[in-house]
Amino acid sequence: MIELGVNIDHVATVRQARRTHEPDPVWAAVEAHLGGADGITVHLREDRRHIQDDDVRRLRELTQIKLNLEMAATDEMLAIARQLRPEMAMLVPEGRHEITTEGGLDIVAQQSRLADVVAALHEAGIVSSVFIDADLDQVEAAARIGARVCEIHTGPYAHAFHARGRDADATAVRDELQRVRRAGEAVLAQGMRFNAGHALNYYNVQPIAALSGIRELHIGHAIVSRALFVGLREAVREMKRLMTAAAGAVPAASAGSSLGGAPPDGSPPDGSPLDGSPPGGSAASSSGPAPRAQGSRG
Question: Is residue 70 annotated as a catalytic residue, yes or no?
């Protein structure tokens, strides 16, 4: 069954805007769990712009579902990961001037260093994941360094989806979806786990969730945005329902039956949009252009 990892970085973003103590990411993790999340994702960035060291420590101690730590492949982050031992550590590229992660990790260009980091994670009993573009050379390089999981970057797909008016049949959208599909097939052929994420939201998630062999989707910004209007628990529940319906785990017609009779298309009972915008408002005016404004990478 497909799984949902909820990225709660932007709960911490709200807190850090005032450098105060609320909202608490640990509380958000509990709410996400109660909404049906299978895991929690956080990105401890080198500049500590949102998630802080103490957040990760408390999440490790208090969450009851698996923790995925996104991290740059630095000595500092490796030491933190080996000390805290999250269930999974995902290596991502990182730039201090970026708003969110702008592309996949270039494993080909730094294969030796990344192989050492992956080996150190494995030695500590941590599942290693790499966030890469839908590029077959990068998939092969991920296998060579010993990564257990590849998360395929869905940002180009999400951007095409938004730019083409959310038309899943548009040529550009279908082309990007095919790139993700081919990369996923290559990941599975190499014996690695196929995950995906970045800029996924309530409108574009289902074609990705329907891909054969996909295991987990990691989604954050869209869920936290939606939570402003419906609450985090319900926002997670709605996303999970869309994913499982698309993946065929439950029939689409009955996917909302346990959620107060929500319509089978995944829209909430009150008819409000599913991207976090208020009823009667447009996704574009609420969330901004994809992929960054709708992203989840942190």
Answer: yes
